[in-house]
Amino acid sequence: MKILTFPLALVLLAAGAGLPSSAEAADKPKVVTTTEDLAALAREVGGERVEVESIARGYQDPHFVEPKPSFLLKLNRADLLILVGLQLEVGWLPPLITQSRNPRIQLGAPGYLDVSQYCEILEIPTVVITRAMGDVHPLGNPHYWLDPQNGRRIAEAIRAKLTDLSPADAAYFQQRYEDFSRRLAEAEKRWDQQMVPYRGQRIVTYHRSWPNFTRRFGLEVVDYVEPKPGIPPSPSHTLELINFMRRENIKLILVEPYFDLKTPKAVARETGGEIVVLLPSVGGEKEVTDYFQLFDYDIQLLTAALERAK
Amino acid sequence: MKTGSAFSREALKRFALAAVCLLLFAPPGVAAEEASADVAARLKALEERIRALEAELAALKAAQPGAAPAAAPPVVPVAAVAAPVGAPQGPTGQLPVYGGASALAKIFNPDISVIGNFTGAIGRNPLLPRPALEMRETEVGFQAVVDPFARADFFLDFSEEGVDLEEGYLTFTSLPAGLLAKVGKMRTGFGIVNTKHNDALPWIDRPLVTENLLGGEEGMSEAGFSVSRLLPAPKDVFLELTAQVFRGDAGDVFQSSRRRDVSVVGHLRGYGDLTESTNLELGLSYARGHNDFGSTFTTDLYGFDATLRWRPLRRAIYHSLLWRSELVWSHRQEPLGTQRAFGVYTGADYRLNRRWTLGGRYDRSGRARDAGLTDNGFSAVVTYWPSEFSQLRWQYRFTNSAEGRNDNELLLQFLFNLGVHGAHPF
Hints:
heterodimer, A: alpha/beta, Rossmann fold, 2 domains, four-stranded parallel β-sheet, 10% strand, B: alpha+beta, Porin, 16-stranded antiparallel β-barrel, 4 helices, 16% helix
């Protein structure tokens, strides 16, 4: 059995080397979110009594994040993992959770919070879906945080969870949540007012990222640059799109910051339309650092473009 | 919302099953009338409990904050509830119907995936023979969480030779002290390429060093244990040590002739982000086991691997670059002395746009059993993705064998994916 001494020695050596992680995990609860939007909402509620970090950056396509080992280090120390759910992160989060060596955030553990279950979800398929429809999300559209109503619901879910994790701070979280909710209500009035003149305007978007946003603010998405969700633009679909936009006099194309602008530009050139690079997430541009700025930024860009398109 | 109702539905289902059991296993030898009166009484009690549960369910639903009507899945008590109430007595009674009735009945099924791997080859290569056309492999995956402490992953390979368990292991996710343990059959954690499934490789074949030094065509895969742990490291450096013990039968590398002839593997993995879009990974590997000359002869393998990745976050789906090299030294004891062979591959893949990737690989490897013989090779690879779920790949492969043959081949591959295939480890 001499051959066994090698792995035993390795494990003993490793065990003797002390805990790399849990030693420092003492005071503030550590919250890791999958996206910067959830991080922004967690900061609104948690304030200075929690530490919040996001895995994906706001200018990154949240469907395609690389499960880097550096994220494992973050997850290893986390007390709470907050995710968007609805299979948005299905391509990268599960192996990270498995390898995190953190029982607190495993599926079903108290530190695993999928906020989609507290929100209003659109585009839940009502027919049998297949991949012939592209990369459809069988549980509904995961870009639901783009309706402030859902933002409030997410904040409430986070408040409840943080209160469970840190009961001593219950009043603090409650007070911060109420303050956030009040400021959000004020902001919503402002955003609604800004968008009212453009109700019913028809637009084209690159990907299906905007159903909650456009429904809330009264825009109508009539077509997509992608022929089907997750399928890159094809020449035939692009041609159809150009003809359709010309015929229907549609002038605006919304594009997420992580998509290539080549096809949208060609479409805009052919139709005399305009591209608006709208941010689906906090952190999509440097100056957009919280949930309020996300809507401020998007609505300002959008209203300006809609005004020009009038 | 979902947790609440799922829990209640589960309770309903369990309750219904209990009811069926009660009906089927009513104590024998009791007068028939007495029995039916008893059953009637029980049914009444059961009905009351159903009502109570339904009320509880409704209360739970109402209590959910922000519960959106659109998000509410229809709460159908399904056949499982109806069955016992209307079920006649005796073994002919209708059992709850699973499957089809609702998605609920399938909720605990594992994630199932199928990956088809069809290959073709033009040209000659006696060293690495492949048929002209072949449904090379059909990989079926079953993956699910087992209980609050573990998850399990199974990958079955169906090929022309039959069915093979490529991997099947339990992973303990909730161990103390930062440990992660696996038990079952798994690909040996030696280096990088040996741990990957065929569908996750950037080539159609595996490098010459796998063929010559690491167990042949499919690499090394064995039954055993694996324990890994994060090591203390400077901030933002990921350092992981893995130790594995296997039975000692891995391809043509290790062979166990006694129970104690186990093989061991160790892997040290270091990873760091250089910038937001660039990262470097370095690894050291060691493996030791007994070879086919018997218990007194061992083979030692030493490995070094390096991977450099670049992927700009704003254009992550369009451009990326990966460069990887692995070096392997094999010391194989034989009756007439030790064979010391060395093998290496180095390869890079560049993603041109969302649909196309270009790659190349250089190979050089001695042969484990005859270290004096060295094979060389070069490959150029083009990959096309119609969507995320299918890919088409061409590989030009040049092989210069130790015997002096020069072989040119064109390999072709279709890979396609059904179902929910769990993401691959990084």
